[in-house]
Amino acid sequence: MAAAAMVVAGGGDFSDLREIKKQLLNVAERSRERGLQHSGKWAAELAFALEPLPLNELPPPPELTEEDARDLDAYTLAKSYFDLKEYDRAAYFLQGCKSQKAYFLYMYSRYLSGEKKKDDETVDSLGPLEKGQVKNEALRELRVELSKKHKAQELDGFGLYLYGVVLRKLDLVKEAIDVFVEAAHVLPLHWGAWLELCNLITDKEMLKFLSLPDTWMKEFFLAHIYTELQLIEEALQKYQSLIDAGFSKSTYIISQIAVAYHNIRDIDKALSIFSELRKQDPYRIENMDTFSNLLYVRSMKPELSYLAHNLCEIDKYRVETCCVIGNYYSLRSQHEKAALYFQRALKLNPRYLGAWTLMGHEYMEMKNTSAAIQAYRHAIEVNKRDYRAWYGLGQTYEILKMPFYCLYYYRRAHQLRPNDSRMLVALGECYEKLNQLVEAKKCYWRAYAVGDVEKMALVKLAKLHEQLNESEQAAQCYIKYIQDIYSCGEVVEHLEVSTAFRYLAQYYFKCKLWDEASACAQKCCAFNDTREEGKALLRQILQLRNQGETSSTDVPAPFFLPASLSANNTPTRRVSPLNLSSVTP
Amino acid sequence: MAGGAGAVHESLYFNPMLTNGVVHANVFGVRDWVTPHKMALLVLLSELGRAGPQLGLLERRRLNRLLPPLLQGPDMALSRLRKAIEECCPQLAGSVHIRLKLMAEGELKDMEQFFDDLSDSFSGTEPEVHKTSVVGLFLRHMILAYNKLSFSQVYKLYTALQQYFHKDEKKDGADENEMELTNPEELDGKMEKEELDGPLREEEMACSGPLSQKQAEYFLSQQASLLKNDETKALAPASLQKELNNLLKFNPDFAEAHYLSYLNNLRVQDVFSSTHSLLHYFDRLILTGAESKSNGDEGYGRSLRYAALNLAALHCRFGHYQQAELALQEAIRIAQESNDHVCLQHCLSWLYILEQKIFDSCVLLEHSVNKSLHFGLPYLASLGIQSLVQQRAFAGKAANKLMDALKDSDLLHWKHSLSELIDISIAQKTAIWRLYGRSTMALQQAQTLLSMNSLEAVNVGVQQNNTESFAVVLCHLAELHAEQGYFAAAAEILKHLKERFPPNSQHAQLWMLFDQKIQFERAMNDGRYHAADSLVAGITALNSIEGVYRKAIVLKAQNQMSEAHKLLQKLLIHCQKIKNTEMVIRVLLSIAELYWRSSCHTIALPVLLQALALAREYSLQYLASETVLNLAFSQLILGIPEQALNILHMAIEPVLAHGAVLDKGCAMFLVAKCQVASAASYAPQKKIEALESAILNLNEAKTYFAKVDCKEQLRDVLYFQARLFHTLGKTQERNKCAMLFRQLHQELPAHGVPLINAFK
Q: Which residue of A has its CA nearest to B309?
């Protein structure tokens, strides 16, 4: 075949962009011929990001073999039926075709027909248990036929891909991975096979043991899978090098980078990249749900509203659109409507994970805890590693006042995201409620150590120390907290700053460190709730000072300013989950 | 001894499927769906109606007995159904088959017609079927379910029927008439099809295909009850888990499967998976509870409380008492907030179990019993009574009152058919009788339980026999047999225990302990002290106090007196602290023995008197008798054999009635010694009589010792007997004894303790 003749450049070698572009155009065309629209789209998008080719270098239309010519009529007819989603009809006319292209379309139509019927059947089955048992009846036959061909080595790259898909649908994961790897070797340009591999590989170890073809496509694959496996740093590096190699205009890469930043909660960067993406590709709907999540987190109502209206105009029956609208309503506290839109998204695509979790959040807002639990559980069923759903379940039980019960869920979430401070703070709060102060302290301290997002861990830790009469440690925590706040230079008044100063003032007062005490007391006066206390303390200090010797007049620089900022402020990057108590799971 | 009964209650974790000790796995919303199997039943019913009076009375009765299980049971293959009908009435089976064939090979309208005709059976002045009868309800359910089906569902049902019928047909065809000629084309198609099935068969075996709703329910309830009653009969943990995973793959909403998976994980002591399954179950249960309107908000809150309670139970089972306490506190708080007294009672019982781990508290328990009675929770109440009785027995309360209480709670059990509690009660009585030292009564109770037909056997057909009660009773039985010298029988019982409670199962530790104790006793009797010493480690692992005690005994036997004494003193203090009176007395006895072995009889006396007072106070009769024997021995050595004989009369009866063979032998030996000693001052004629009776007693002792194969004691007895015969001038007998003595003496090593000066 044509692809076999084409030399695909080795891994990381992007020197000949023209050649790459040719290959992309070629594979886009061939994918389209076989009805593989997503892979075609991907290749085309990437090709678009590269410089246009002059006329004389455009790849020639693929040559037709004898077999192709024989099957041409059947193929043309069937392809048009296929495009109209009349899969059975297409398959009927393709029976007996021998050419690779027609054979693939034949098998693929049968597969899709089975899938479509399966989806239709789930609506009216004969019993609740049977609901889950509706299977794609065609799969087994397809597997048998394809495995025969596979043994005889008659499958081309696309055929292998289809065989892998069939195997995966039959839950034969190991076999499927092998076949996909083979497909990637035979036809490295077909993005679909790579993407399927991404879904099947669950950890870094598995990735290490795969023998992948050494082509430039591998770089895209690696970048993608690093994002999936939450190895964001590595993923960003890969994407950067791809951009440097000349794919700077690719919307695909830009969107992936934005998603990666979203995953590490670098909200500002992600937001700016998404805005850029929308400028380049204003009618894009993919990934806009992630964008809306970011807008939601930052409470950017007007932007979210604009996005929602815009997407609704483009296509209101898309999962992403529903999700954005749901977020929009949620931000406006219209939770019923939000839940409705998430439900709609799930109707459009029951495997769309994010919507389950988001719906859970909405039900939580509506105080419908049982529905929330249901939604979260569904999310976990779709993806066991969805930490937000575990976290949500924990929150639900916390609202139901079951702090011990929710520990389990928070712990699960924590295991999935060991360096996310939110779970740690939640865990700490639960332990505090259960009066397990030692564990609580551990949690808060770790939350601070991994980089506290909400900056509450230290205050909570300080209060714990306060409770335990460990005034030394409490003061230390408050100092660190204040340093933290000031170093951020946040304009927003932090609620607990006054508490911190009040405690510190009293602490220094007790320790008879008048200078520090008076500095803190003065700070106290800046806040409404502590003003009176601060003044009273200042008076007391003055009195006591007058009794004693007069202190040196030069006031040292306030200790709490960033000058003495501790070095451990940088969060450790990758940490193992906290071992809270050995006996509990 | 009675320690075995201590763990009885822990096995009764409360679960939502279990109310008053009965498993109700079928808590699913009962909704009927028309399946091909059900259609076959409908055909059967309509044929039954049509056949009417032509059927013989006998056939009719047989069919009537067949119907209810068919109507309620899981779906089955057509061939099996046909066989079942054929056994009752072959003629009817034929007509059912024909009608099914007509329907399956006909058109869709035949099926539709069939359902239209079904409702006719209700009409008329004298309908064939009453609307409210079992059959009538079934018919109406089916008609209703059929009418609800959409067009495509009706078509699907029809194709399902065809498949159902043809599967059967094909099987028949394969058996009988393979000869039928088919044209080559069809044959080709068949080949293709078979090839198609070929490579897939293996996986299909692995997951054995999806189950229907009813089948799944049946499977779950069956396995759950097997797990509860007879674990060995249930599927192996791994394969059960596989089945459950399969079930859950097809229907993740099937919450009960998660619960079963939790129970299954408990079997293999997997704390991670069991927690996971338990929480998943309650997450799922919560949503089904919220969905059904009848339960409403109430049901939802209820499952939350029980979720926390079950979590507490789980932690308790894995020995995480602190965690269990936290979870329990949570359950109690929520239950209090929602005024759920029933749940609170459950919590209270668990609180008791947890507190027991730390210290005894009767107050909680009494409170629990009262409240449970008040709220009409017989299960919980008698469980409480049983715990209370157990505790009081250890605390030395009057035996008659305890037995009365047990009898009263037994009345309650029989009234409510709580077979599990009846078992526990009997096991507890066995243990209590053992504690009091009445081995014959204990033996009787143990046999009662083992030969009793469980109530459940009537209901489910499963003998309830892998509960803790059975383990306890069997262990006691083994020990009782070993005490009487029937070591083969004891070994047999232990072998049975090993089979019934495999080493990784929940109650396996019980028999492990008893097994080692029996082995230890044997080793001590045979004088293989090093073997006994090696068993101590194993015993200590299972029960630390018992282990320390045995260690001291071994030390004592090896003449390491000061070490033994040190150990025993430590143990004494510990046991007095935890109020383990039984062990205190045993330790005191051992200490006394140490004293008289070092010839300090005067010091031994107060110790023995202390032991006697304690044993009397706690009505531990057997220990009391043993103490009396020791006392008598001390008196004998101190030169007041008449006094010794006097008090021996008190002890000898209980020892002979209930004692271990070894103890019996020792007692008789001691009696003989006392007789001889006191005879010294008698007139010659009377003296001869006394000596002769002593020889008889020695003979008895000899038989006892021979039974347990105690050669050392046997040697002593023979020596003593030879001396007595010598005194009486019976040379022949004397020589015989002397010869036997010499044989034994050559076999055994001589050891330091003087021959006559030792009792035991």
A: A405
Are B334 and A393 within 8 A, CB to CB? no
**CB of A373 within 8 Å of any CB in chain B?**
yes
Chain A residues 96-125 with a CB less than 8 Å from chain B: 124-125
Q: Are residues B138 and B261 in the same domain?
A: no
Q: Count how many domains chain B has.
A: 2
B165 and B264 inside one domain:
no
Which of A276-280, B70-74, B574-578 has the lowest average pLDDT? B70-74
If asked whether residues B163 and B235 sit together in one domain, one would say no
CATH number of the domain enclosing B310: 1.25.40.10
Q: Is the ipTM of this complex over 0.85?
A: no
What angle do the packed helices B544-557 and B561-578 form, to 10 degrees? 160
User: Is any Cβ of chain B less than 8 angstroms from the Cβ of A428?
Assistant: no
| Domains of chain A, earliest start first | 285-373 (1.25.40.10)
Give the gap in angstroms from C-alpha A433 to the nearest C-alpha of chain B. 11
> If DSSP codes are grouped into helix, strand and coil, which group holds residue A275?
helix
Whether the per-residue pLDDT at A10 is higher than 70: the answer is no
B367 assigned to some structural domain: yes
A371, A373, A583: residue with CB nearest B323: A583
Question: Given 3-state DSSP classes, what are the helix, strand and coil percentages for chain A, each rounded to the nearest 5?
Answer: 70, 0, 30
3-state class of B19 per DSSP? strand
Q: Taking CB atoms and an 8 Å limit, are A140 and B323 in contact across chains?
A: no
* Rounded distance between C-alpha atoms, residue A407 and residue A391, angstroms: 10
Asked if residue B492 belongs to a domain, the reply is no
Residue B46 in any domain: the answer is yes
| Residues sharing a CB contact under 8 Å with residue B622, sequence separation 6 or more, in sequence order | B436, B437, B438, B439, B654, B655, B658, B659
Q: Do A144 and B196 touch (CB under 8 A)?
A: yes
Chain B residues in contact with A403 by the CB 8 A cut-off are 330
Most confidently modeled range among A323-337, B106-120, B236-250, B259-273: A323-337
Q: What are phi and psi of B22, to 5 degrees?
A: -115, 135
Q: Are B248 and B383 in the same domain?
A: yes
Higher pLDDT, A107 or B218: A107
Write down how long chain B is: 760
Of B379, B412, B440, the last residue of a domain is: B440
Q: Is the pLDDT score of A236 beyond 60?
A: yes
| Together in a domain, B247 and B328 | yes
Among the candidates B406, B440, B474, a domain finishes at B440
Same domain, B160 and B235: no
What's the gap in Å between the CA of B369 and the closest CA on chain A?
28
Question: Tell me, what's the pLDDT at B287?
Answer: 52
Domain residue limits at B314: 230-288+295-440
Q: Can you tell me the distance from the alpha carbon of A381 to that of B251, in angstroms, rounded to the nearest whole number?
A: 11
Determine whether the interchain pair A132/B327 forms a contact, defined as Cβ–Cβ distance below 8 Å. Answer: no
- A584 inside 8 A of chain B by CB: yes
What is the interface size between A and B, counted as CB pairs within 8 Å?
Answer: 114
- State pLDDT tens for residues B552-589: 999 988 888 889 999 999 999 998 888 888 899 999 99
Report residue B297's pLDDT band, with 50, 70 and 90 as the boundaries: very low
Residues on chain B touching A370 (C-beta within 8 angstroms)? 286-287, 289-290, 300
Which of A137, A147, A370 has the highest number of chain B CBs within 10 A, making it the mutation to test binding with B? Answer: A370
- Do residues B261 and B275 lie in contact, with contact meaning Cβ atoms separated by under 8 Å? no
Strands B22-23 and B18-19: antiparallel
* B144 shares its domain with B43: yes
Query: At A181, is the secondary structure helix, strand, or coil?
Result: helix
Indicate if B242 and B383 belong to the same structural domain. Answer: yes
Query: Chain B: nearest CA to A326, how far in angstroms?
Result: 23
How far is Cα B366 from Cα B362, in angstroms, rounded to an integer? 6
Tell whether B16 is covered by a domain. Answer: no
Task: Residue B271: list chain A partners with CB under 8 A.
Answer: 583-585
